[in-house]
Structure formats: structure tokens, C-alpha cells
Amino acid sequence: MINTSLSLTNFRNHHQTDVVWGEHVNMITGPNGAGKTNLIDALHYLCMGRSFTSSSDMYVVRQDAAAFLVKGTFRGKIRSLFDVACSYGRGDGKKLWVNDSPLERHADLIGLVPVVLVSPDDRKLTGEGPAERRSFLDALISQTSPAYLDDLIRYRKIVRQRNRLLSDMHMHSAELGLMLEPWDRQLSETGSRIIAKRGALVNKFQSYLEKAHQELAGSVLVPSIAYKTFCDTGDKPSPDPARIRDFYDNELRKVSERERERRQTITGPHRDELVFFLNGMELRKFGSQGQHRIFALALKMAQLYFYSDELEDLPVFLLDDVFGDLDPQRTETVMQMLLHHDGQSFITAAHPDKISGFSASGRHHITSYEVSDGRVEPIS
After folding, report:
1. Are residues 64 and 77 in the same domain?
2. For the residues of 123-175, what is the DSSP string, one character each?
3. Is 153 in the same domain as 232?
4. In the chain, fewer beta carbons within 10 Å around the N or the C end?
């Protein structure tokens, strides 16, 4: 997938910015605060419908404006040429369009333009709690499987409804059991499909992680992932949802009293964990700072390789300030990996001297841009 052009109106510190991109590696340089990250955050909006730098759309609107608008033109194999737009207005909320047709659900955008993002926040993947890793896993699968995304949205609604029932202090135990019964069926049915899909993905993703980690680290350390859930998913590459559902139904019966005491749903994929290892040692407990950094980057490179094999269109690759923490050897390794990848990449760098030695490589090339005070200029 190629983003041929991008337009930003009142988006952070960009009043009106229009850019035509190169088809391979796009290098975006400029001082801190100039608006480099804003450009790839705008691309992230067009791919995922949300910012990766802000928790709320309202903080993305330029301070002296009431709304922002981001538009982009894409070219791919399935859709030869199409436009995506995203707007947010104070009081109007967020709206998404494809070829000027409004999307009924924001979820319908996911997977249309596959994207992989590398940012400084990736350190949370390996160092913080399980929610970060579940979010990574869910986003990884959702861009390849609309059915999985639908199940995930449905499952979260079921959990919210169940929790409302469990927190009702005035409901008698027998009445609560009757009210929970239909939600329990939906919970185990939907949740078992999510668990099966996650288990299958982790089994398949392992080889991509090993490849990416070897390219980046070049060491004898072997990375691995373990998907931890409340039941045994089996040793098959594709776990059986029906088998998982049987476990699920039994587990719900076992924890029913505890759920009523705690007034919340305590069993299901919303409590699952993804554990990372190097040579069988848990990374979160025993890994050095450098090993954490390389592992997180390997996860994103593995995601890039996985999408490249699984999807009709190559993903857009966004790298925000990734070279600041890398030594020259690994900087060169990452750049060579990008130059040998046929897809389109966008890289921000505050210090262009770290990557100034890279230029043309066969039929691929780097297109450079400089950003200053919200203005973007191509560099010849």
C-alpha cells in the first residue's frame, strides 16, 4: 500500500500542510517540536482512526481552531486508488470517510490500509503489564481478520453488560443467575473464538519473531512467545474453539461465587497474558535494557514481515524517532532491512546525521523532507 499524498488542516502545529511522498523510504527530519511526529500520526489516523500520541482527539486540534481534517490518497492492489479522510470537531466528534462516503463504524477502517508503527512507547510492550501486550496482539490480528475485530468488539460489550449485572447490589442471587445465563453463553461463545485465534496467531508468529530478532541482534539468543490463558488451548497450530468453549463454560461455573463477591467478570481473554522469553528466560524479569529495546523492535519488524506474507497489500511502516536509542551498527541494520523491503516507510529523525550516509540502493531510494514550524519542504 502506498500513500501518495497527505493533507493536514489545523492538525496540531500544522495549519495547512500538503505533502507528496516518495514510494519507498521517506525520511522526515527537523528539530524537536517542529511537527515531524504529527505527520506520521496523521497517517496513523488514516489507517487506524486514532492518534498514537494522544489519548483524546480534542488534544490534536490546533489551539486556535475548532476542528482538524486529515486527508490522504492511497494506491494498492485491491483498490487501485482511493481517498481516506478523518475529521474531528469540538462538539461534532470524529468522522471517517472513504472516497467521500462516510463510514458507519470506525472499525470498518481497520485493515483497509494495513500499518505497522514503531515508537518510543514500544518499551511498554516488554516492560509493563499484560494490557500492553494484549493490545499489541489484538491490533496485530484485527488488521488481518475483520471477524476477529467484530468478535473483540462484541466481547467487550458483553463484559460491560455482565459487569453491570454483577455490580447490582439489589439483585438476589437466584435472579442474578437467571439474568447472567444468556450473557454467559455469549461470553463463552465469543471468547472461545478470540482465544483460538490468538493461540493460532502466536504459533504462526513465532518464526517471524525469530527471523527479525536474528537480523537485529545477530546473537545466539532465541526469542519466543507464550500465550497464557485460563485453559489449555492444545498443541495444534490452530486451537479448536469448541474445545475451548467447554473449558470456558466449566470455568465460569467454578468462579461464579468469586465473580459475585468481586462484582466483575474475572475469567476470559480480557485477562490473558503474552509472555516473552530469550533462551527460555522471561524477558520482563531477566532481560537487560538493551535486550528489551531490541525485542520490542523485533516484534514490530516481525509484524511487518507477517503482514507482508499474509495480506494482498504491503503495510505502511511508520517509525517515530527509533534511531535515538540505537547504536550505529543497529541503525545500519534497520535501514538495510527497510531498503530491502518493498513497502513504503516513513521515518522521523531529529538528528539526520545518524542516517545521512544512506541513499540510493538499487531500484529503491530515500526521499527526504525537512520540517520546521509546521512547514514541510522536500530536500533534494
Report:
1. yes
2. HHHHHS-HHHHHHHHHHHHHTT-HHHHHHHHHHHHHHHHHHHHHT-TTS-HHH
3. yes
4. C
